[in-house]
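Hello forum,

I keep getting stuck at the same step: I have a sequence, I want structure tokens, and every attempt I make locally crashes halfway through. Rather than fight my setup again tonight, could one of you with a working pipeline run this one for me? It's a single chain of 580 residues.
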Amino acid sequence: MSWHQWRKFWLGSGVTRFKKRSGPWTSLISRCGQLFGIGCLSTLLYPATTVAAEQVSLFYGPFEFSISVSSLERFAREGTVDSELAAYAKHAKPEEIAEFRQILSYRLNLGVVPVSQFLYSSFGEISLRFLGNLIQTEAHQNGFYALRASLILAAADPEGLTLLNVLKKFPTRTMRINSEFALEMVRGFTDLYHQTQQATTLIERQFDAEAKTEPAINPDLAPKLDQPGEWKWTQETLTLDDRRRQRRFVVDLYRPQRPDSVSTLIISPGLWASRSNFAELAQHLASHGFAVVVMDHPGSNRQQLEALLAGRAREVVRTSEFIDRPLDVSYLLDELQRRTQTPVSGQGTLNLQSVGIIGHSFGGYTALALAGATFDLASLRQECESSQINLNVGNISLLLQCSAIGLSPQAVNRLRDPRVQAVVALNPIGSQIFGPQGIGQLQVPVMLVSGSEDAIAPALLEQICPFTWLTTPNQYLVLIQKGSHTYASANTNQNDPFNAPELAGPDPALAYRYLNTMTLAFAKNHLAAAPVSASFLQASYVRSISQPPLPLKLVRSLDEPEVAQAMTQLCPRPTVAQNP
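Reply #2:
Ran it on my machine without issues. Output:
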């Protein structure tokens, strides 16, 4: 869900009614599912009980307003607005009333096993404790256990997991909704939305200032870096077995058929993703002469999701993945060195001493850790052990980042691989894991790519502020305005709810073309033996390829005086001097 949609959903509901175009229940589940699967709305459950909710009560300080569940049920099943519901319905528009009826009845097709598996995972428990502040029991206690019970019971019921059924299964006679907490959430989302809009405006100002100092580019004459290159390539699937870590994983190697030394790129997908997610990007880069390896990280890939939903795994992601993902890449480089250095007719050797890594979301964390970002476990632990872990300001990625609090400092500070010499981080997470100090340790070229309406890894918190913490001289911030969290290629399976193209924003094909263009420009300039594309990493070039409905911006800094001053109000600054 975009920030604009979040804001309209919460503010339009006014806490007493639901409002959102095209159904907030389905959209919220789909959007949140992109990173955390079934979690965001199905975070609610417990053992069977004969008590069931008879009314929903909304309280704010000494004031309380109630409506019976039976009144809501008649409305959902028959469309009948009785006298009890009419007192509230008179404040809503007819289309809003119709939407609310759809929300009450919409069935989420998830069985009791996947729902239970998620809600008993650490992700589910964190989500439940947070939502339990909003949805409370009759005794005004956190609704953690009651929510878990109602969701499990609803999922097991023949009528299935609907909002109405969750209300009916709630195991106290009154479900109390804490309006003060709800309004705090609304304010948090609203503040973040406005702050993100302010940051976007500042980036546009910096972008315009940088473009004015550069030669104008004729769009008709500008190189089309989104088009396939001249090199043919081959694909090979490799199975790697790291016996020391007892970790077996599969990668796809795309290798151009060129006789000289070949620059190498590694692609690390996000949580619950697979190698196929970025196959089109890999093929595009290979056609331009790069060897590209797409990773598949066991323990945080699509198979982990399938295992969770089938009851074969207990956790959304294993904590050890924060260590194992970077080590997968290092082991891969060792194995490629061993396997591929014997020349093959028509193919050159791979340059594995200066490689680039492209990471998306959790893969963005992986890339930054490999490139030298250091951990701030003390600050992370403090943030995550607070009662609300700041989810009320909309940073859903904290659910994943907080999974790292149990790691040891000795383990996390041995992840840097000196062979990684350039990083493209697509919608990365890591603001709390690394913090300003950790991000400031990066000294290799870094490109951060952000979508202004990313509801999973919010642009301001996870990419724009971290960009201001960078100290490396070669730094780039690419902003896709109205862009979302995902990138759906033409080959994306449209029946896959976690990779559906509509989750990638208003024009998935254009977003993917931007991805092909900007990663290629970055790789050519910072990894190729003879860089020829520095001009491609300038505001004037980006302006020449930017198209509606996804305007594209690129900045090298945010140092325009007015911009820099305003950004200091939006982003925390390092408290001590960075290492040179």
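The mean pLDDT is 85. If your local run keeps crashing, start a new thread with the error log.
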